[in-house]
Amino acid sequence: MSLDPDIAARLKRGPDGLVPAIVQQYDSGEVLMLAWMDDEALHRTLTTGRATYWSRSRQEYWVKGNTSGHVQHVKAVALDCDGDTVLLKVDQVGAACHTGDRTCFDADALLP
Amino acid sequence: MSLDPDIAARLKRGPDGLVPAIVQQYDSGEVLMLAWMDDEALHRTLTTGRATYWSRSRQEYWVKGNTSGHVQHVKAVALDCDGDTVLLKVDQVGAACHTGDRTCFDADALLP
């Protein structure tokens, strides 16, 4: 099993083989976090319905919520016009952020 | 003029000196696009109220809308928990995408 060749052909990966994935709560529109995917992580996300990323710090696949319980159920996935960014719409169980905040952008406002 | 040292100290840049910036329409919550910023682009975005990026393809600063008229008026800026991603809330004039679509994620749905 691997990523659909039609999708793989459209994907423009960075030098590290990864694309950024923007993760958004599907109904409220909140931007929850940004994570990274390689082809296999995108494949697993599309086929399992559970958001799966590549952890750059741990260098391993990471099924969001497997340890915390803060699962992301995948509702929609889209590629951008350049094929170099993924937008994931999910239903987030609990907090998206490891700090316990609902989103990873709650704690450090630069403006206003 | 350069980026506030307190902010610069919290910013975790990639090997290319850039951080991804997620751009969201401030009222509807639509995710419009993803772009890239270095310290100077973030500084200009925070101080001018106009979204300013670093263009990786053209290797130059890029004030969104300067040629297209599709300006982004900055409403809010936040850093994520790791300091490696920026979330920009803007008021987008016209289309965010160079294709004429409202967002860069309108044309290529992978799921459903």
TrEMBL record, chains A, B:
Could you confirm whether the keyword Amino-acid biosynthesis appears in this record?
A: yes
From the UniProt record, list the reaction(s) this protein catalyses: 1-(5-phospho-beta-D-ribosyl)-5'-AMP + H2O = 1-(5-phospho-beta-D-ribosyl)-5-[(5-phospho-beta-D-ribosylamino)methylideneamino]imidazole-4-carboxamide; 1-(5-phospho-beta-D-ribosyl)-ATP + H2O = 1-(5-phospho-beta-D-ribosyl)-5'-AMP + diphosphate + H(+)
- As recorded in UniProt, its EC number(s) are 3.5.4.19
Write out the entry's keywords from A to Z: Amino-acid biosynthesis, Cytoplasm, Histidine biosynthesis, Hydrolase, Magnesium, Metal-binding, Zinc
Cofactor(s) in the UniProt record: Zn(2+); Mg(2+)
Which InterPro entries does UniProt cross-reference here?
PRA-CH, PRib_AMP_CycHydrolase_dom, PRib_AMP_CycHydrolase_sf
- Residues annotated as binding Mg(2+) are 80, 82, 84
Q: What domain of life?
A: Bacteria
The record's subcellular locations are: Cytoplasm
What is the annotated quaternary arrangement, including any partners? Homodimer.
Q: Which residues bind Zn(2+)?
A: 81, 97, 104
Any one Gene Ontology BP term: L-histidine biosynthetic process
Question: Which stretches make up the Phosphoribosyl-AMP cyclohydrolase domain?
Answer: 33-105
Q: Which Pfam families match?
A: PRA-CH (PF01502)
Q: Which HAMAP family match?
A: HisI
Task: Give an example GO molecular function.
Answer: magnesium ion binding
Task: Give the enzyme's main class according to its UniProt record, as a single word.
Answer: hydrolase
What name does UniProt use for this protein? Phosphoribosyl-AMP cyclohydrolase
Report the cofactor remark: Binds 1 zinc ion per subunit. Binds 1 Mg(2+) ion per subunit.
